[in-house]
């Protein structure tokens, strides 16, 4: 099932992005702002 593998990969990617968000949540780091600005606003981060 290609779709199942893709779903799993996307879930892992989102988990990684969420951990990045937590790392920079209280930071004024421009790298975080750039990353967040590049992502769609409706992403569950």
Task: Using brief descriptors, characterize the structure shown.
about 45 residues, mainly alpha, 2 helices, elongated
What does this entry look like structurally?
- The mean pLDDT is 71.
- With 45 residues, the protein is an all-alpha fold.
- It has two helices and no strands.
- It is elongated and about 40 Å long.
Short description:
With 45 residues, the chain is mainly α. The chain has two helices and no strands. It has helices spanning 2-24, 30-38.
Structural class: mainly alpha
Cα distance, first to last residue?
27 Å
Tally of alpha and pi helices:
2
Average pLDDT taken over every residue: 71
Helix content: over 70%
Question: What is the total tally of β strands?
Answer: 0
Which assembly state applies to the chains in this document? single chain
Radius of gyration: 12 Å
Strand content: under 5%
| Gross morphology | elongated
Uncertain segments are none
Order of helices and strands: HH
Q: Give the biggest beta sheet.
A: none
Question: What layout of secondary structure does this protein have?
Answer:
Blueprint: H1 2-24, H2 30-38
